Amino acid sequence: MDSMAWTKIYCLIWLVYIFSCKKVHLQDIKDVINSYDHFDIMKLMKGGKFIIGINDPKSDTGEYPVRMTEVKPFYMDIYPVTVSQMWKFKHRKQKYKTTAEKKGFSWVLSKFVPDDIKLNWASESPERGWLAVKGAMWSRPEGPGSSIRKRLDYPVVHVSYNDAKALCETIGKRLPTEDEWEFAARGGLEGLQYPWGDKFKKMRMNTWQGQFPDEDQGNDQWVGLAPVYAYGPQNNFSMYNMLGNVWEWTSTKYYDRVVDRSLQELRYVLKGGSYLDTRDGSYNYVVRTSNRMGQAPDYTAHNVGVRCAASAPHLVKRPRQPREEEAQKKPLSTPRPPRLHKLSEMAFPPTGTKETETQKSKWKSGRRWHGEEL
């Protein structure tokens, strides 16, 4: 066998080895992703009437005034959508490009952007502390060079409303409405600031402590993003991360109260606050159950994620239909009253009858009633 034949055999063996290693690598990644499926779990919300909003006239986000609303039974994700779930979505929809991928950039807080990325891949923002980082997306949260391999149990970020809607629908779910989100967050407690009550507890959610935007003291044990399970359930419905960590998209449109709606650009409501927000609103937003923010459908940032919901039509109580016996007793329609004819419509005297003195007096006086014998 000549040297050319040996070369071909060697190349063939090498190609088989490369493809087999690639297949094993892909299988390993799939196994790793599937190991986080225990974060993809939903809880049934029975729905009903409840009070939404807060009694704070100083608020200008639309959470004031309080009002009564009602939601039908639905299912809600216990955790926000994780990076592992987003990875599975991208494997299923390989041609799908997120909004950040299409735009080529996303917003990241400057504190978390490495210096070399700031120099070559970022540009300043009108918003204090924010940078438009080229290449920042769900798989590279802080831009080129960052990774998600050790953050598969973190909430996915840099997702727009359009991404969130596509992701939820692909896995057979949908985005929650604002009312549904707040119902799940309150956990059955009405009129209170937090899912657990009215008393602030720093160890129950991931918020900002320190001078914004350069100092986050991490008094709540986390600086920046935290895993979805970091603080345990926040209310009686066993819901995690409803407040703090990342804002979450809803399907409800956002409108400013003092501007004609027809003049406003399309925006959607986000709920929950994030790790950049504070207890008292000294920096960014006040973190509380009722608070809300409006953003355009293509908005993406390092502190914006999503949580999915699903309808429960089989649990919706429908109006009781009347039984057959009851339906038969009730008339199908209200009978019309008998029509009283005008005197001019009648024969005078009625044809084929003999006119008597009594009849004459009744006709002349106009006292002629329906059904009365003349």
UniProtKB/TrEMBL annotation:
Residues 311-374 are annotated as: Disordered. The keyword Signal applies. One of its GO terms (cellular component) is endoplasmic reticulum. It comes from Potamilus streckersoni. InterPro entries: CTDL_fold, Sulfatase_Mod_Factor_Kinase, SUMF_dom, SUMF_sf. Belongs to the sulfatase-modifying factor family. Residues 44-309 form the Sulfatase-modifying factor enzyme-like domain. The keyword Signal applies. Keywords: Signal. This is Sulfatase-modifying factor enzyme-like domain-containing protein. Residues 1-26 form the signal peptide. Gene3D superfamilies: paralog of FGE (formylglycine-generating enzyme). It holds the Pfam family FGE-sulfatase.
